[in-house]
Amino acid sequence: MTIAQISRDAGEPLMAMRAIEKSYGPVVVLKGVDLILRPGEVHGLLGENGAGKSTLMRIVFGLAQPDRGTIELAGKGTVRIESPRHALSLGIGLVSQELSLVPQLDVAQNIFLGSTQALHAIPRPELKRKAAEILAELAPHIDCSASVGSLGMADRQLVEIARTLARGGEIIAFDEPTSSLTPTEQENLFKVIAKLREAGKGIIYISHRMSEIRAICDVITVLRDGQVIMTDRTDAHDTDTINSMITGRELSNATSRARHASQSAGPDLLSLDRLTTDRVKSISASVKAGEIFGLAGLVGSGRSALLRAIFGIDPIRSGHLKVAGREVTIKSPSDAIAQGVAYLPEDRRGQAVVPMMSIESNFGLVSLSRYSRFGFIDFARRRAAIRKLSAELSIKPRNIAVPLGHLSGGNQQKVIIARWLATNAKIYLFDEPTRGIDVGAKAEIYELLQRLAAEGAAVVVVSSELPELLYLADRIGIMEDGHLNTVIENSETLTEDRVMKLMTAGVAQ
After folding, report:
1. Which of 178, 61, 200, 153 has its CA nearest to residue 435?
2. DSSP 8-state code for residue 259
3. Architecture of domain 265-340+425-509
4. Which helix (H) or strand (E) holds 334?
5. Coil, strand or helix at 33
6. Total-model pTM
7. CB of 146 within 8 A of CB of 135?
8. Is residue 89 packed enough to be buried (19+ CB in 10 Å), middle (13-18) or exposed (0-12)?
9. In this model, does residue 361 exceed pLDDT 80?
10. pLDDT digit string (tens) for 388-401?
11. Is residue 216 over pLDDT 80?
C-alpha cells in the first residue's frame, strides 16, 4: 500500500474552518478566523507567540472547542471534533514537539494505538506487517518491533505520521517539528512532507523559521492578535513584508549583520584551560568582556554540555576555569551564581521555569537571598525589582501575579533573563535563546544580548540557527564530538555554507 493509495481525490477543500472564535474568560484569543486547507497543499500558519496559532490547532485536534464558528471536512460535512482520538478517526493528525506516543510500546503498537480492534483482534505478526506496509515509503529503515523509546526524535515524528496515515489520514499539522532535528533529519522530514503533498494530503505547517516556510509552504496565513491578517501564496511576498505582517511593525533592523565588537572588547572574563567532563574533552577557550561568543555544531557535538559544565551542572573531571583572571572552582549551580555566571537552558519549560507559579515567584527563584532579611522575603522590594525590569524588557502582561505558563514563549524567556539581570551577573550562557520564539520577540532578545555585551558582560550563545550566530557573534567556535575544533572571527564575508562545512568536516570523512 502506498501513501497515494490511501489518499482521497483532489477537489473540494479537505478542511474549511469558518469564523472561528475562542475566548478564555475575558481574553479573546481567536476573532472570526477562517482557514481553508486544500489537497496537495502545504499551508504555513504564522504569527507571534500569543497570536492564536496554538489555540487554533487545539481546536483542530479536539483539545478545545470553539465558542463560535464551524469546521467542515471533505466528505463529512460540518463536524465537532470532540477529542484527539476523534480527530484521528476523522483523518486529522498532529506532529508537535510533544509527541503523543507511548515510549514503552513498540512501533507497530504505537501506529495502531487507540484502535482497540487492531490491538486486540489482529495477531501480532499481522499488526507488524500492516505497520511495515505503511512505513514502506515513509520510513523503511524503522524496525516495527523496536520500542519507540529507543528511537530518535526524527523517527518518532515519522511514527506519528504513520499513525495518522493508518487511520486514513488526510490532514497532518506540524507544530515546530524541526526544533530538535539535525540539518540532515530536517532535510529528510521535508522529503516526507513532499511525498505527502504529492499524495494529495493537506499539511498545516507552523514554524518561526522563515527559511523553512519559504522552502516548503505553498500558501501562508498570518495571524495577529487572534485575527487573520493575510492569506496568500508564499512567493507573493518577501520576507521583510511577511515579518512586518506578523509583528505589525518593521523589523528590517534585525535582518542584517550586527556590528561586531571583538576587536574593541575588554580583557578575558571567562577562560577555560583543557576543561574536561564526561561529554567535553580538553577544551581551551576564552571570552572577553563585551564579546558575544557563538557556539556552532551538530546536535550531540557537546555545545550544551560545555555550558552545563561551566554552570556546575555536569562535573568537571580535569582542567581549569577562570573568571576575570582568577581561577575558580565551580561544583554546583550555586557556585556558578556566586561567581556571577548566569545560565539559560535549552529546555526552558523543563529546566528554567515553574509554569504554574507566578511571574514574580519565577523571577525570585535564583535570588532568594537578595530579597531576604533575617530569613524573611522582602516582597515589596522584590516586586519593585521585577516591575522595573518588566518595564525595561517590555514583558507582557505587566501583572506579575499571572502564572508564567500563561505567557508566550518570548515573554517567558524575557522573565528568565530579567531574573539573571537582577543578580548582576557578568557571564551569560544562553542555550538556544530564541528556540520556539516568534520573529518579533526574537529581535527583542537580540537587542538584549547586544545590550549585555555593550555593558561589559561576556555572552556565550549556543544556536542551531546559523543566521542567528552570524548576526550576533563576534567569534564562532565549532564543536564536534566533544571537541572545540576551531574558533573563527565573524565578518561580512563569513557564510552559512562555510560554517556548515566546518561543522560537518568530521562527519564527511
Report:
1. 178
2. P
3. 3-Layer(aba) Sandwich (3.40)
4. helix 333-338
5. strand
6. 0.68
7. no
8. middle
9. yes
10. 888 888 888 788 88
11. yes
